[in-house]
Design goal:
It is a single chain. By secondary structure, the protein is mainly beta. It has 2 domains: about 25-340, no CATH class; about 345-399, no CATH class. The chain has 4 helices and 18 strands. The strands form 2 sheets. It has a 9-stranded mixed β-sheet with strand order 1-4-6-8-10-12-14-16-18, covered by helices on one side. A 9-stranded mixed β-sheet has the order 2-3-5-7-9-11-13-15-17, with helices on one face. Helix 2 (about 345-350) crosses helix 3. InterPro entries: Fe-S_cluster_assembly_SufBD, SUF_FeS_clus_asmbl_SufBD_core, SUF_FeS_clus_asmbl_SufBD_sf, SUF_FeS_clus_asmbl_SufD. Belongs to the iron-sulfur cluster assembly SufBD family. It comes from Nocardia callitridis.
Length: about 400
């Protein structure tokens, strides 16, 4: 299979691979479509120090051989064009270049890509539902999906991921000028699944993005998202919700790269963890890394990022690292916050003092914790599904 090698997308100038442990500007991370341009990562690399590489099934070192196929199905919607294209299609890679070896491996490994397009000034009335089913237990597959909105287009896309196996993918979102895109991605994999997903977003002039990432299932899910602005006036909101059980490793790494003036970004990710010290599966583990870069040319930027984690039981660990780099003083505002803790005893006391049993009170606290994210999901069936999934998680520990 011919893979081909592309250079950087227009406007990007990848630097030489700095190697392990190098301290560089977040905007100067090496990027390439060629997997051989990357060194094999190790636990000494900043981008991989939280990831259990021994559980990556060879995705990181090239030993994972494609021996299966994932299924991608797109529900027909009026005004939406869906294509299955060859890897040589010139549109692929328009939103960004892989910046780690696994994403490059995924780009080198897929055969067919799915391209979803919405035309100029088209407003799609119903959600575009993309269902991705893994290759099956013990199988490995690679995939590529691109969503394109032309100028002034409006659409909602739901990416529903399920099934078993090992699946590495790149997903692109290309927003034209004044386009409005809402994305809800639900990673509800089977217990054996490993998913390494890299999302690349290019936000056009005055375009608006709301990206909601929900992680509920899978043995190991490593999700990265990179947002770049293609013109002033762009507005990106990144929301996330995750719930990890014993033996699960959920890792989210975000980069919002403000390169042009008058843009906004807001990041809110919330997670809950419940482990089982007696389980042979190991601890529940979540990792959230949030990077926001405001470059010298990005005057009048407004940004904030927040990560909160709720630890429900022993046998759970959450790592949270917000980062903010500012290269200009001419901004509207910038900040970040992070908090990890157990139940608020005062909240529980308040509810129990009003006659609510402790298990019901705990459920109410968790529902309230996630409410900020869930209420912003505009697709009712997805919102109801998440509420049911959270109830099921809480019932599993008798909360």
């Amino acid at each position: 299979m011919a893979t081909g090698v592309k250079g950087a997308v227009e406007g990007e100038s990848p630097v030489q691979n700095p190697g392990a442990g190098a301290a560089i500007n977040k905007g100067e991370v090496f990027s390439s479509f060629d997997v051989d341009a990357f060194e094999v990562p190790s636990g000494r690399d900043e981008a991989w120090r939280f990831t259990p590489l021994r559980r990556m099934r060879g995705l990181h070192d090239g030993s994972a051989v494609r021996d299966g196929d994932a299924t991608v199905e797109v529900r027909p919607v009026e005004g939406v064009r869906v294509e299955t294209v060859e890897r040589t299609d010139a549109r692929l890679g328009a939103a960004g270049v892989p910046s780690d070896r696994v994403a490059a491996q995924a780009y080198s490994g897929f055969e067919k890509a799915t391209v979803i397009s919405v035309g100029t000034e088209t407003e799609v009335a119903e959600p575009i539902v993309v269902t991705v089913t893994g290759p099956g237990e013990g199988k490995t597959a690679y995939g590529h999906t691109q969503v394109r909105l032309a100028n002034f287009a409006v659409a909602t896309v739901v990416i529903d991921q399920r099934g078993s196996g090992t699946y590495a993918e790149n997903v692109e979102f290309v927003l034209g000028d004044s386009a409005k895109l809402t994305v809800v991605t639900v990673q509800d994999w089977a217990d054996d699944a490993l998913n390494a997903a890299a999302h690349h977003v290019k936000v056009g002039r005055d375009a608006t993005l709301r990206h909601i990432a929900v992680t509920l299932g899978g043995e190991l899910v490593r999700f990265t998202a990179t947002v770049r602005y293609d013109g002033p006036g762009g507005d990106a909101e990144l929301l996330g919700l995750y719930f990890a059980d014993a033996g699960q490793h959920f890792e989210q790494r975000l980069l919002v790269d403000h390169t042009v003036p008058n843009c906004k970004s807001n990041v809110v990710y919330k997670g809950a963890l419940q482990g089982d010290p007696q389980s042979h599966k190991g601890d529940a583990r979540t990792v959230w890394i949030g990077d926001v870069l405001i470059r010298a040319a990005a005057e009048d930027t407004e940004t904030f990022e927040l990560n909160r984690n709720l630890v429900l039981t022993d046998g759970a660990r959450a790592d949270s690292v917000p980062n903010l780099e500012i290269e200009t003083g001419e901004i509207i505002g910038a900040g970040h916050a992070s908090a990890t803790g157990r139940f608020d005893d005062e909240q529980l006391f308040y509810l129990r003092a009003r006659g609510i049993p402790e298990d019901a009170a705990r459920r109410l606290v968790v529902r309230g914790f996630f409410h900020e994210v869930i209420q912003k999901i505009a697709v009712p069936e997805i919102r109801e599904r998440l509420e049911a999934a959270i109830e099921a998680e809480l019932a599993a520990i008798g909360s």
